[in-house]
Structures are given as structure tokens and as C-alpha cells.
Backbone:
């Protein structure tokens, strides 16, 4: 009887041991998946930063070329320079892509985009600037960069959304909570982005973005 009891006890222990092993590898699989999704978001964020930096790098050349080409209004150029300084001063640690931090980053970048748009539109009032090949080249590069920014932002949002859903779903939410995986922020449409820009307003320098 004692031997039979030992066998039963040993069998129960083995079953419990196998259950613990199964739970361990189940949790490990979820954790590794969260790490993979987190790294993918960080990779997409790097692409976003690179595109925004590309725009920031082009702006001094555009401002300098415009300034040399004609007696252009200084206030517009100053606005662009100040907006660029503000935008480049907002840096985000990839490990802390919280909704609040991303909103701060987007606000600064939107301010630069608005100032840059006013500059590009008002250039149309100056025939010499419109015909300047260096300015035309920079405008084309900026246009391509803006397209790249949109693509990279969309890709980031897609990856961050997949990650956010994963950390909210049960049972992966348990592992996410235990290991400190936090919600990622998303890019949102800029205020007024659904409306077509009023070119006359921009030319008159009364844009309120």
C-alpha cells in the first residue's frame, strides 16, 4: 500500500511539475512576443525620427538660399528658424513613447510644418525665388521628405497599435503588467488637417495653426 501511495504521490508531483514547466514556457513565449513587438515599434520610431531629422537638415539650406537670393521678409524666416529650434529640442527616449510624450513631439513638429508651409507658399510671391533652381531643388526634396514622414508615421502607428492591443489582451496583459510593458502613443491628425489650406490666408500671413 505504501508503495502504491508513493507511486500516486510521485505521479501527482510529476503532473504538477509538467504543468509548471508548461506555464513557464507559455509565459516565456508571450514575453518574447512582447519583446519582439516592442522592438518593432522602436525600429519604426527610428525611421520616424530619421525622416523628421531629414526635414530639419534641409531647412537651414532653404532659409539660407532664400535669404541670399532676395530681400525676403525676415519675420517669416525667423519663424521657421525658431520653429525648427523648438522641434529639434524635443527628444523622446524610445523606451518611453508614452501618449503624452508623443503628443508633445507631434505638437513641436506640427509647429515647424506650419511655419515651413507659410514660407513655401509665400515664396510664390517672388518671381526670382520661384525661378531659383536651388530653391526648386530644395522644395522638391522637402516634398519627398514630407511624403516619407507620412509613410513612416503610418507604419509606426500600425506597429504601435498591434503592440498596444497585445498588452491589453488577456492573458498577455498579465505578463505585460509584470514586466513593465506600457502603452505606446500614436500620431494623430493635426488640428485642421481635414480642411484644405486657405492659400490667400497663408499669403497674407494670418494662418492660425
Residues:
Amino acid at each position: 500500500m505504501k508503495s502504491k501511495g508513493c507511486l500516486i504521490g510521485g505521479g501527482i508531483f510529476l503532473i504538477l511539475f509538467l504543468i509548471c514547466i508548461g506555464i513557464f514556457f507559455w509565459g516565456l513565449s508571450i514575453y518574447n512576443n512582447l519583446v519582439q513587438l516592442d522592438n518593432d515599434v522602436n525600429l519604426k520610431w527610428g525611421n520616424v525620427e530619421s525622416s523628421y531629422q531629414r526635414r530639419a537638415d534641409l531647412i537651414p539650406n532653404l532659409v539660407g538660399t532664400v535669404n541670399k537670393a532676395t530681400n525676403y521678409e525676415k519675420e517669416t524666416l525667423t519663424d521657421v528658424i525658431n520653429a525648427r529650434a523648438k522641434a529639434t529640442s524635443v527628444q523622446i527616449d524610445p523606451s518611453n513613447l508614452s501618449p503624452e510624450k508623443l503628443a508633445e513631439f507631434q505638437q513641436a513638429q506640427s509647429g515647424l510644418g506650419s511655419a515651413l508651409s507659410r514660407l513655401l507658399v509665400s515664396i510664390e510671391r517672388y518671381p526670382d525665388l520661384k525661378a531659383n533652381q536651388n530653391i526648386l531643388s530644395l522644395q522638391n526634396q522637402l516634398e519627398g521628405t514630407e511624403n516619407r514622414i507620412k509613410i513612416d508615421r503610418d507604419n509606426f502607428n500600425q506597429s504601435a497599435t498591434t503592440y498596444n492591443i497585445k498588452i491589453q489582451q488577456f492573458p498577455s496583459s498579465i505578463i505585460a503588467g509584470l514586466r513593465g510593458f506600457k502603452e505606446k502613443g500614436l500620431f494623430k491628425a493635426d488640428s485642421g488637417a481635414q480642411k484644405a489650406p486657405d492659400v490667400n490666408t497663408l499669403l497674407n500671413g494670418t494662418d492660425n495653426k
Summary: Helices lie at 2-69, 74-89, 99-122, 127-130, 133-168, 172-179, 199-203. Residues 2-69 form the longest helix (68 residues). The chain is about 75% helix and 0% strand.
